[in-house]
Amino acid sequence: MPRNGLAAAFAATAVVLLGLACTAAAAAVTLQTGRSLIPVGGGSPVLYNATRDTAITTQYIDAWNNMNGITYLWGSTAPDFTYGLGEASPYNPAEKFRTLLRFDDAHSYVPADAVVQSAELTVTFINYNFDPVLVQACFMTRPWAYQGGPSYKTVGWAFSGWDGSASVPWTQPGAWADCSPNVNISFVLPSNGAYGYVSQTIALDPASVQAWLPSNGSANYGLLFRAVNGSVSIVSSQWQKDAPALRRPALSIAFSTDPADAPAPAAYPVTLGTVSRTWWVDPTGDDALNSGHSDSPFKTPAKAVFEAWPGDKIYLKSGAYPGALNILRSNITLQSAPGNWAVVSSPTNDPQQAVNVITLRPGANYGVIQDLEITGGFSYGISFISSTVEGPSHWTISNVRIHNTGSSSIKLSDKAANIIFSNCDI
Ligand SMILES: *[C@@H]1O[C@H](CO)[C@@H](O)[C@H](O)[C@H]1NC(C)=O
Ligand SMILES: *[C@@H]1O[C@H](CO)[C@@H](O)[C@H](O)[C@H]1NC(C)=O
Ligand SMILES: *[C@@H]1O[C@H](CO)[C@@H](O)[C@H](O)[C@H]1NC(C)=O
Ligand SMILES: *[C@@H]1O[C@H](CO)[C@@H](O)[C@H](O)[C@H]1NC(C)=O
Ligand SMILES: *[C@@H]1O[C@H](CO)[C@@H](O)[C@H](O)[C@H]1NC(C)=O
């Protein structure tokens, strides 16, 4: 774009923003902690490049930690904080570990008079089990958070030192007496072999998130997680080992200062499950430090393909990206982000590392590749590879331009059935 065009574009943006300032504004924010804990014994918090630095408490629930959120400060030099869900306590096998998650200062990021239109929570679990595990969560109705020292009185959960009458004995699995009956969160967490990590996104009830905001968050009691029929781990807000921004919990809130934008009230009770996620990729992004949210994009499509689960979308901002992508999971959409145009390329002279620009593996079905330019590859632009029993089936390839490949643009194999090409230039 010529310089003048750029200047004109900025001027137009400014006008739009002024227009918004005069009326009501819709906005979105992703809350994620960029802070490592203050090291044991004191010192400055270590900052890294996260989406948004906010305070998030993840609290491990077991009898020996007095139900007091004390783990917020414990062992802060360890690199890999994960908390258990579902595992039996070594001190009392009848007790099952649970974890509480609270975005402590959500109210600082959303104006008190705004309406929450939608909210999306991303949490990473680790499931090395062979089987999937049923995970549930709820909105807490009682305070539990660590409040600056052993202050058992603030804990609504029954524990050995709790003298209140509320709450079921915490040794009971679940302790749902402290949960809002309005919203149950329930989903089956897939296993992910030796890699373990499974990032899940849950669309939260907007009104329940709204209730976290008034009076400086005084009724923000967070969410309780439990595993029902197996044991898994949840990655805490203190996670420091690798890709902290990707693994730590994140909450995205879309809000508006126009009361007319309030969503229709939900018909309670509602049961919420996981929703698909959009992973953002930008040539200026970062695979190691960023979270894949729109304001914290990855750098390569390969990283997004690796993290995406069935139903997820991968949005590529305009630019050129390396190919040699291997899609192994079903129901993945790969495309240029709306209003953008991305080019995915591989060299034509590397039969080891870049046979195809995009390889679709057997069992990866119902995917979509659209609005994309694909160039190069020693052999093919898109190769559908079949095993003896199955191929990648039910793919839709639309508005895709494939050119300058080493061999053909597309290679279909015998079991790659029900593939639709529309509006492609190949
Ligand atoms: C964060 O970003 C800045 C500027 O791009 C960079 O200098 C710094 O090294 C980054 N921090 C980490 C922990 O990589
Ligand atoms: C747990 O329950 C879920 C949903 O009912 C099921 O898919 C999963 O296989 C179960 N896992 C185990 C370990 O029993
Ligand atoms: C919220 O906190 C601010 C700053 O501490 C204080 O001035 C204000 O009165 C508080 N508002 C409410 C509703 O508690
Ligand atoms: C939520 O789950 C609890 C425990 O399984 C159950 O007692 C309650 O009825 C459920 N509420 C809704 C709204 O499904
Ligand atoms: C993929 O989508 C198809 C069609 O909507 C659906 O039948 C299938 O269960 C989905 N598979 C996965 C793994 O999500």
TrEMBL record:
Signal peptide: 1-26
Keyword vocabulary terms for this entry: Signal
Record keyword Chloroplast present: no
Organism taxonomic ancestry: Eukaryota, Viridiplantae, Chlorophyta, core chlorophytes, Chlorophyceae
SUPFAM superfamilies assigned: Pectin lyase-like
Name of the protein this chain belongs to: DUF1565 domain-containing protein
Transmembrane parts of this sequence: none
Domain of life: Eukaryota
InterPro entries per record: Pectin_lyas_fold (IPR012334), Pectin_lyase_fold/virulence (IPR011050)
